[in-house]
Amino acid sequence: MEARIQTPASADVTAAIQGLYKAVHSGGVDPLVQELVHLRASQINGCSPCVFAGVASARRHGESDERLHSVVAWRETPFFTPAERAALALTEAATRIQDGAPGVSDQIWDEAAAHFDEKQLSAIVLNIAMTNFFNRINHTIREQAGKTW
């Protein structure tokens, strides 16, 4: 299968996306937590290019294979901190909003807020939204795994 579009985004779109990523990265959240958030949302959405690129990026940030292989089953492993678990739960709830899914409950939000301040939560939520944005674009245009950005 080939991607439906080969043309890169326009300069205006690229600049806007870079501005959003700057906001994500300036939020004071540990980059490994943000990598886990990106990877988990991409796994849920079945976005192979984002899973591929997310694993590569997490490795560049020092993430272990043991933890990367366990993100999909994070609840059943001892490998994640309480803060990481809160971020992963928030990611899942914010990503699974289809057809009557409960979304982000007060309990999930409160647990995340116990570990992250408002600026950090804003960065995590923006990262979740950006990941879902790219997952949907990649699904629509049939982008293929194998690239890193």
Could you walk me through the main structural features you see in this protein, from its secondary elements to its overall organization?
This protein is mainly α and 149 residues long. The protein has one domain: AhpD-like (Up-down Bundle). Helices cover 65% and strands 0% of the residues. It is built from seven helices and no strands. It is globular and about 45 Å long. The mean pLDDT is 91.
Mean of residue pLDDT? 91
What is the CATH homology-level superfamily? AhpD-like
Q: Regions with pLDDT < 50 over 5+ consecutive residues? A: none
Give the name of the CATH architecture. Answer: Up-down Bundle
CATH class designation? Mainly Alpha
Report the C-alpha radius of gyration, rounded.
Answer: 15 Å
Main beta sheet strand tally, sense and closure: none
**What is the CATH fold-level name?**
AhpD-like
Question: What pattern of helices and strands is seen along the backbone?
Answer: HHHHHHH
Number of distinct beta strands = 0
Q: Roughly what fraction of the amino acids lie in strands?
A: under 5%
How many structural domains are formed by the residues?
1
